[in-house]
Amino acid sequence: MRSVLIAGNWKMNLTEKETVKFLENFNPEKSNIELLLCPPYIDIPIMRKVLKNSFVKWGAQNVYSEKFGAFTGEISAHMLSELGCSYVICGHSERRNIFNESNELILKKVNSVISERMIPILCVGENLEDKESGNSLNKIKEQIKSVFEKIQQETDIIPVIAYEPVWAIGTGKSATAEYAEETAKNIREYIEKLKGKEYSELVRILYGGSVNISNIVEFLKQKDIDGVLIGGASLDPKKLNEIYSKVVIAQGVK
Ligand code: PGA
Questions:
Q1: Pairing of strands 87-90, 205-208
Q2: Which residues make Cβ contacts (< 8 Å) with residue 226, sequence separation at least 6?
Q3: Are the C-beta atoms of residues 103 and 147 closer than 8 Å to each other?
Q4: Catalytic residue among 94, 101, 126, 164
Q5: What are phi and psi of 137, to 5 degrees?
Q6: Which of 33, 155, 156, 196 is most open to solvent, judged by the fewest CB atoms within 10 Å of its CB?
Q7: What is the DSSP string of 35-98?
Q8: Annotated catalytic, 78?
Q9: Residue 231 C-alpha to ligand 1 middle, in angstroms?
Q10: Which of 92, 94, 101, 181 does the annotation list as catalytic?
């Protein structure tokens, strides 16, 4: 049985002070659902302090692939693990598109996260052009293959995959639950081809792209969707409380 993960990606939002304020107003009750917040790097230390005794986990939105050295402006997995991060998002479409991250670099990032015993959240997804030209699945398979074929072999850490259609991110136009499920199912079948049935059954697949209080339960009802990656709607503590409570109440919907 794969556990449900609700992850918030704050992107480049909320200062340290705003993080403290957010956490003062964020008071979810523990359940068997995993809750994760990924703030900007500089907010991680304060988040760690405030959430020390909470069930809520924290993680990072990005990482560099090397452990230390002359890489001005970068942060390593080694540093993030010392700050108690549980997860690290790798290959978000904004990293791929704005910062030109390649599949090769993303593989290195994923492996560095695994080396530090954190869980990578590998983001994959088609853009509008891929969708319109019928290339969505090829694009996603390429993104998955480049990582899962060469991932560190001797490890018990299984990356999470976040399926995020680029056209649905921050647009308010989420994919339909059926569309997201169809892709998630294809992703799981492809992982099975690459890594075998047992492994593919353990991989958690999240949906991301304009998730909100009105559509979240529909996504989580789907057989192959094990959680969500939420951007905009994770920035308001009250909204996130409501989203989380709604999911807790709706548990067992599958
Ligand atoms: P959104 O972002 O929920 O604001 O669409 C999702 C993401 O980019 O992870």
A1: unpaired
A2: 2, 3, 4, 5, 204, 205, 206
A3: yes
A4: 164
A5: -65, -40
A6: 156
A7: EEEE--GGGHHHHHHHTTTSS-EEEES--BSSSSSS-TT--BHHHHHHTT--EEEES-HHHHHH
A8: no
A9: 4
A10: 92
Other residues' Cβ atoms within 10 Å of the Cβ of residue 18 = 14
**Cα–Cα distances in Å, from 18 out to 61, 83, 235, 237, 238?**
18, 19, 10, 11, 14
For residues 31 and 82, give the distance between their C-alpha atoms in angstroms, rounded to a whole number. Answer: 26
What is the C-alpha separation between 254 and 221, in angstroms, rounded? 5
Residue 116 is encoded by which pair of tokens? Answer: 């530090």
The verdict on whether 92 is a catalytic residue reads: yes
Q: How far apart are CA 48 and CA 58, in angstroms?
A: 7
pLDDT per residue as tens digits for the range 239-249: 999 999 999 99
Q: Is residue 254 over pLDDT 70?
A: no
Torsion 237-239-242-244 (CA) sign: negative
Reported as a single tens digit per residue, the pLDDT across 14-73 is 999 999 999 999 999 999 999 999 999 999 999 999 999 999 999 999 999 999 999 999
User: pTM for the full model?
Assistant: 0.97
Residue 225 and residue 23: Cα distance in Å, rounded?
A: 27
Q: Are 237 and 22 in contact, with CB atoms under 8 Å apart?
A: yes
Residue 135 scores a pLDDT above 80: yes
Helix ranges, the chain (H): 16-24, 44-50, 77-82, 93-98, 103-115, 128-132, 136-148, 177-195, 197-202, 216-221, 237-249
